[in-house]
Specification:
It is a single chain. It is built from six helices and eleven strands. The protein is an alpha/beta fold and 230 residues long. The protein has one domain: Glutaconate Coenzyme A-transferase (3-Layer(aba) Sandwich). The strands form two sheets. Strands 1, 2, 3, 4, 8, 9, 10 and 11 form an eight-stranded mixed beta sheet that branches. It has a three-stranded antiparallel beta sheet with strand order 5-7-6. The protein is globular and about 55 Å long.
Length: 230
């Protein structure tokens, strides 16, 4: 099975209107820049996007919000994007705000084949509305379902043509779990190498989970919020 694609546009050829996408990274760290740009160019709309956050104005998922291609966002943090706020308050964008640990675990459970789990996070709040609750050892818990996607899109530092992926430091946040939770997983990498060039002990996501891979280019790697100390 040849998993290698020439570029992002080729890798997303069958993503259609109404698709559910998981997009890896944390803030602007480790986001699939090339693939997001290709989605903007392709013009697919009515997307449901599952991501820890919504990027910033004019970059990351902010680009898809700017072009009104996202119908629904499922995230844990959205505070850096003014256009997101505007669309939310005007009713243009549907939002499912999920506690960060719950979001991460729902994705992990999908990759592990576990349909649901119980968590105390959100009990007694609006998040609990309509959800099953249960008591364990005198404490109340909510049942949360595993979170799947039509396509999981991640960005890694290095990958081989078999789909084995290596991430750099915190760029693996969410990405390693998302890669296992999509019906089709697309990986863009900074370096695409041949099988055997990655030590098996260094692999963070095994190639069995990755369906398509391509070498990206011209990464901006923006910093979401820069803090300096004198």
């Amino acid at each position: 099975m040849n998993k290698v694609f020439t570029d992002a546009e080729a890798a997303i050829h069958d993503i259609a209107d109404g698709a559910t996408l998981m997009l890896g990274g944390f803030g602007l760290n480790g986001i699939p820049e090339n693939t997001i740009a290709a989605l903007v160019k392709k013009g697919v709309k009515e997307l449901t996007c599952i991501s820890n956050n919504a990027g910033v104005d004019g970059f990351g998922l902010g680009l898809l919000l700017q072009t009104r291609q996202i119908k629904k966002m499922m995230s844990s943090y959205v505070g850096e994007n003014a256009e997101f706020e505007r669309q939310l308050l005007s009713g243009e964008l549907e939002v499912d705000l999920i506690p960060q640990g719950t979001l991460a675990t729902r994705i992990q459970m999908a990759g592990m084949g576990i349909p649901a789990f119980f968590t105390p996070a959100g009990y007694g709040t609006e998040i609990a509305a309509g959800k099953e609750t249960r008591e364990f050892d005198g404490k109340m818990y909510l049942m949360e379902h595993a979170l799947h996607a039509d396509f999981a899109i991640v960005k890694a530092w290095k990958g081989d043509t078999l789909g084995n992926l290596v991430f750099r430091k915190t760029t693996r946040n969410f990405s390693t779990s998302m890669a296992k939770a999509g019906n089709t997983t697309i990986a863009e990498v900074e370096q695409l190498v041949q099988p055997g060039e990655i030590d098996p002990d260094d692999v963070h996501v095994a190639g069995v989970y990755v369906h398509r891979i391509f070498e990206g280019k011209q990464y901006e790697k923006r910093i979401e919020r820069k803090t300096v100390k004198l």
